[in-house]
Structures are given as C-alpha cells and as structure tokens.
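Q: I'm writing up a methods section and want to include an example of the input and output format. Could you take the sequence below and give the corresponding predicted structure tokens, formatted cleanly so I can copy it straight into the document?
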Amino acid sequence: MRRSLKLAAAVLSGSLGIASLAACGAKSTDNNTASAGGGSGLKVGMAYDIGGRGDQSFNDSAARGLDKAKSDLGAVINEAEAKSGESEGDKEQRLKSLVTSGFNPVIAVGFVYQDAVNKVAKDNPNVKFAIIDSNSPDQPSNVTSLTFSEEQGSFLAGVAAANKSKTKHIGFIGGVQSELIKKFEAGYTAGAKSVDPSIAVEVTYLTTPPDFTGFADPGKGKQAAQGQLDKGADVIYSAAGSSGSGAIEAVATAQGTKWAIGVDSDQAKQPALDKYKDHILTSMVKNVDTAVFSFVKSVKDGNVQSGVKNFDLKDGGVSLATTGGYIDDIKAKIDAATQQITSGATKVPTAP
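A: Here is the clean output for your methods example:
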C-alpha cells in the first residue's frame, strides 16, 4: 500500500500543510521538509496502522522501506501515526493532510485504510497511492495494492513448529479475526499437518472487527499465549502486530522448552525483544520494506503499476528467518517444503 505521486498543485502553503499533518499525528523526519532529501523532489507520505513505527513487527517493516527510500532515493518523508479507536473520518483526514502538504506518493499501511484510500485517491487522481495488505474491486486506478502470500511463509512456519514440538501440540494467535490474518492461520496449520496430520493446533483471536486493538495490545497477546501454554502447546506463532510481543514474553518466561515464532519482521533481531531472542524459534518475515521501496522507486522512475502487485515466496516476498540457528537442523525439510510451494506442487490454502 504505497504509492502516491502528487507534487502538482500544492495550493496550500507549506506551513498550513504541515500544521494540518501535525493535527493528525504526523511527523516529518526532517526539520526542513522542503530542502531535505538531496533535492530529488520526491516527497513520500506514510500513514501507519495502529501501533506505528516501533511495533517491532508490521509497521516497522514498512518503516524500513521508507527509510531506504530516504537514504537511497533522496526522498523527503513524512509519517502519520494512527490512534486507537479512531473513526473512518480520522483515517481520511490523515491521508488528506499528507496530500495537501504535497506528499506524493502516499502509502497506507494496513487493510483498515481501504475505504479511506478509495475515497481520497478518487478525489486526488494526480496523486499515487499504495495500500498494503488490501485490494478492492472498486479501487481507483491511481492506487496500487501491495499484497503478500502470507500463507506460504506461514506454511513453512508450521513445518518448523511441527518438527520442533515435543508435545505435538502447537498454537496460533491472530491479532484480529480478519480474512488477512486467516491466511496466516490457514498456512500455518496446513504446514504443521503436512508434517504430522494428528498434531493439535490451538487457535486464538484477540479481537474481531471493528475492534482492531488486537494488533496493539501486548497484554492480550500474553494472556492468550499463557492460555495455550496451559493447554499443552509448546510452539506458538503470533500474527498480531505488537500484541505478539506479549505472546513472545509469555513463551520465553514459561517453564520448560517452549518456542515462539515471530511475524513480519525478524523479531529475534528487534532490540525491544532482545532478552527473549533465545526463545524465538524463527519468524515468518513479510518483506513489506521491499514492497514499499520498490513502489516508491517505481513512482520516481515513472513506471508505477496500478492494481495488485503481489509478493510471494518465489520472489522473496515472504521468508523464514534463521537467526539463532534454531532451525538449522531441519533446513532440509524447510527447503523441501519451499521447493514444493515454489514449483506449484503444494497449493497452500488461504482460508482455514
């Protein structure tokens, strides 16, 4: 979800534009927005999902792509933070503020922005927008959907979990019960069952729409993981944004050998989770940073692809982290499963 090309008619003054951004929780990473970025003229706005930069997961992966656009392409960047419990109007205003401040492209991080992106993009046809993790049939032509084959990476996470579980009992925690997160669940369960058809898989969702706080509540994540541990699960995979950090904490502090599986970013490398890294078996890495950077570059180069741009296992859109070396002993099994998926021999389900 990112791509917006609108420097055209910045009718409002820069000071008014930046003021409106501040009102929406946005922040420029440069004090002098007009001159920063090496004079490339590229101004990229990013509207984060709940949790924002610093969530150690999904938003942070998007932020890495934005940072690379700044360092490699000379882009001036501006970031707008989401608020818990906000309305659809809040999302629209956040995007409008980026547009009126001259940012183009504008990237929306998360499927919760779909309606807002459709409306604001329609009203601003000269601006390029990207939305991550969503695609709608009535999406305007100036919007690019950046999607991922999460089920494929999650399948590999399931293979790892089943091979490492001593109790033959594993768990999955989803932040919000949505079609997107069900892809993670479906792939994970299918991967585990491909190793051991009789393995037990606990499934817990933290919230259901319209409540999206399940992506930003480590306390809920910790409680859910503890519940699964109490039932006998010894490997738990969380697709829950920053709530997953709570699940990782519960696993890391449990008695006996228990493993957590991270998501989106390589969570064993996240500074805030450093004290738990010895309990993170692997992470299903979703390379949102790659998608964000490639989109911004396509805007700069003038060859933006509208519609859907999907990133799968074959092209490196998703992968399994090897930090810590904890899955080195099952590398051959992971490689075999990868080959089966990329060759098309294994069709990974996208729904439980």
